[in-house]
Amino acid sequence: MFGRTYVRESQTAAFARFAAKRCALAVPVLIGVATVVFATVALIPGDPVTSMLGPGATPEAVAELTGRLGLDRPLPLRWWEWLSATAQGDLGSSIAQRRPVGEIVMTAFGNTLVLAAAAGLLVLAGGVALGTLTAVGRGRASGRLSSALSIVAISAPQYSVALLLVVLLGVQAGLFPTGGMYDAIGGGGLGDRIHHLALPALAAALVPMGVTARVYAAALTDVLNADFVESMRARGLSEAAVIRHAVRNALPSLLTIGGLQIAYLLEGVVFVETIFAWPGIGQTLFQAIQARDLPVIEAGVLVTAVAFVGLTIAVDALHWLLDPRTRR
Amino acid sequence: MSLEVRGLTVAFAGGVEAVRGVDLTLPAGGTLVLLGESGSGKSATARALVGLPGRGERVGGSVTLGGRSLLGLRGRELRALRGAEIGLVGQDPSGALDPLRRVGPQLEELLRRHRVVGGGAGGHDASGHGASGHGASGHGASHGWRARARSRAAVRARVVELLEHVGLPQPARVAGSFPHQLSGGMRQRVAIALAVCCEPRLLIADEPTTALDARVQTRVLELFGRLRDELGSALLLVTHDVVAARAVGGEVAVMYAGRIVERGPAARLLTAPAHPYTRALLAAQPSRAIPRGRLPAIPGSPPPADRPLPPGCPFAPRCAAAVGVCRVERPELEPLDDEVAAACLLAEREVVAHG
User: Fold this and answer.
1) What ipTM score was computed for the predicted complex, to two decimals?
2) Is A100 in a helix, a strand, or coil?
3) Is residue A33 part of a domain?
4) Is residue A70 assigned to a domain?
5) How far is C-alpha B39 from the chain's CA centre?
6) How many domains does chain A have?
């Protein structure tokens, strides 16, 4: 009598199979990404030797440095060496900075994650709030207002919004710092971090937040018009309970679009990081490209791609857990 | 607890009516079949009874259940009534359930909501009728986790019992399944379990078998009859299907263009109807006698609900028997004898002539 009376098929094994398959599929994707990254970097004009030695270098010096960096060997060989070293976690060392690439990229990527997480929170919170208001307030002033707000957010390009924020709130109002991660003197506390995060996170979050709000509003509207919602009302469930069911049913859509938008954030922060002098992967890549620092470019793009793929897998796994209909 | 409907109207924003003055009487434990083709206003009638009119529809007239007026109810009162005293089964079984939750918890939620078992006081007694047996009384001393666990177990046991009662094999497995893992017929049985779990006084089934295949249809209709008898609820079946109406029996009210055009016991009405529309409906049933060729159908289509009715009998344009007066004078529902009433000038004349 006590305990469970329902018979439920265990889903653990099915989930493990699903996760294993998804991860296995990610391997060729990552190799492909790595190859494209390598090829792109090899094909872009300009080479590290010229940028290190300057235009006045003697041909002998150029040849010597090219040989030392291994840049004179055939491309496929360099590709294979780079790929196998990368697979073992050895990202090589930076040409321009003479530090291990892993160290540079990981530090920068950690900073980017902080920014992306803050922006991601804004995307989800703002997207859900605006989306819910739009869906629930459809046909009323509140719905139209929130719908208009999300369109404004979508239409605001990151670089101009970032500059506007810097000029208005940073320079003129003096409310927020205009760059960096923390104050040079006496900074580094949590409050100081958040103070520095506010503007870049907001600038990075606006567009994906608007997209998320619109997609979530559409999903929630669909669910609220679904037959089962009326069936629940016909059974006398409270409006709060009905909304709870509806929101739960709109969650998979939110997850799909939110996950994708946050993944894009990881790449979209290049502008924002450059404008706000945020020492993240975007800024690092920007500088590495200027210096033709090939290993850093390759590793930076690769790390971002890995994060993207990882996030996609996480979203798929959550989707699997949230929506039983997707389980095969 | 009888259902009394007087002068029910369902009007659209422009003042045009989908339901144009419907009177129904359904005694406790009785059966009423609302029969009509699509667009006759039968579903609008059913939705109006549970206070769920479509968007932009206004409901007029009076509806009482056990002497209590339903149409004035709002918010909390209305929600307490829905599900608990009126159970509704819809046409599409996949639209009855939250697709992301297992069947069991959805039933539990409703049982808790209407306080039939498990926690809270003030609900009506769950045991007593044939549908419930042991383990149905959940509110005893409700303090401490032990009591809560007992209450939870009682609710779950009740859920399994309910699913078994609506004829689902392996009810414990059904309770642990998601809706998409069940067949259409099984889902409709779950929807029925949801409708009857609080032992409603009135069970409304709006085209409950339309989405099911023929073999399952018969079984589901049998289930409605059985539940009505066991729970002592009144059963209102809304259907376009004469076969379904025959299977359930009881009283039949035939709807056309938002009005009742004929009313009487199923046995008489579905064998020897007085109204030409009922006759046409019966003639339009496909039968095994004509295996090939065109399916019989009533020529023309019902008058649109979004425009006012033209003068005269609304069925006259499609009626083979119509005479001049039918296009001028609108017939009212008049008793032909002590069982049958019809809204047809010709039927009245016939009675006068033969009686």
Assistant:
1) 0.79
2) strand
3) no
4) no
5) 16
6) 1
Q: Are A264 and A276 within 8 A, CB to CB?
A: no
**Mutate which: B100, B111, B159, vs A, most A CBs within 10 A:** B100
Residue B49, helix vs strand vs coil: helix
Task: Please say if the pLDDT value at position B106 is more than 90.
Answer: yes
In chain A, what is the straight-line distance between the N-terminal and C-terminal CA atoms, in Å? 33
**pLDDT(A53) > 80:** no
Instruction: Name the residue among A265, A269, A289 with its Cα closest to residue A279.
Output: A269
**Closest partner CB to A235 (pick from B110, B149, B172):** B110
- Smallest CA–CA distance, residue B154 to chain A, in Å, is 8
The DSSP output letter for A171 is: I
Q: How far apart are CA B290 and CA B299, in angstroms?
A: 19
B86-100 average pLDDT score: 88
Q: What is the mean pLDDT of residues A209-216?
A: 93
Lookup: tokens for B84: 């608990």
Per-residue DSSP letters for B157-225?
Answer: HHHHHHHHHTT-SSHHHHHTS-GGGS-HHHHHHHHHHHHHTT--SEEEEESTTTTS-HHHHHHHHHHHH
Chain A stretch 244-283, residues whose beta carbon is closer than 8 A to a beta carbon of chain B: 245, 248-249
3-state secondary structure of A157: coil
- The string of DSSP codes covering A252-311 is HHHHHHHHHHHHHHHHHHHHHHHHTT--SHHHHHHHHHHTT-HHHHHHHHHHHHHHHHHH
pLDDT (average), residues B59-69:
88
Q: Is B260 helix (H, G, I), strand (E, B) or coil?
A: strand
Q: Quick count: other Cβ atoms within 10 Å of Cβ B128?
A: 11
Residue B248 tokens, joined: 């359930």
Burial class (CB in 10 A: 0-12, 13-18, 19+), B199: buried
- For the stretch B219-250, what's the b/e string if a residue is b when 16 or more beta carbons lie within 10 angstroms of its beta carbon? ebbebbbebbeebebbbbbbbbbbbbbbbbbb
Is A249 within 8 Å of B175 when comparing Cβ atoms? no
B81: nearest CB among A9, A230, A236? A236
| Under 8 Å between Cβ of B127 and B158 | no
Partners of A234 on chain B (C-beta within 8 Å) are 50, 52, 82-83, 88, 90
> Residue A6's closest chain B neighbor by CA?
B172
Residue A293 resides in a domain:
yes
Q: What is the share, in percent, of chain B residues with pLDDT greater than 70?
A: 87
CATH code of the domain covering residue A176: 1.10.3720.10
Chain B contact present for A228, CB below 8 A? yes
User: pLDDT value at position B139?
Assistant: 46
Alpha carbons B157 and B168: distance in angstroms, whole number: 15
Contacts of B184 in chain A (CB under 8 A): none
Considering only CB atoms, which chain B residues are within 8 Å of A241?
109, 113
Global pTM value: 0.78
Asked whether the beta carbons of B312 and B298 are under 8 A apart, the reply is no
Instruction: Tell me the sheet residues that pair with B92.
Output: none
The span from the CA of B92 to the CA of B76, in Å, is 27
Nearest CB neighbour to A249, from listed B99, B175, B176: B99
Q: In sequence order, which residues have a C-beta less than 8 Å from that of residue B161 and are 6 or more positions away?
A: B132, B133, B135, B136, B171
List Cβ<8 Å contacts ≥24 apart for A53-56: none
Residue A161 lies in a domain: yes
Closest CA to A296 of A80, A39, A96, A72: A96
Q: Is A139 on the interface with B (CB under 8 A)?
A: no
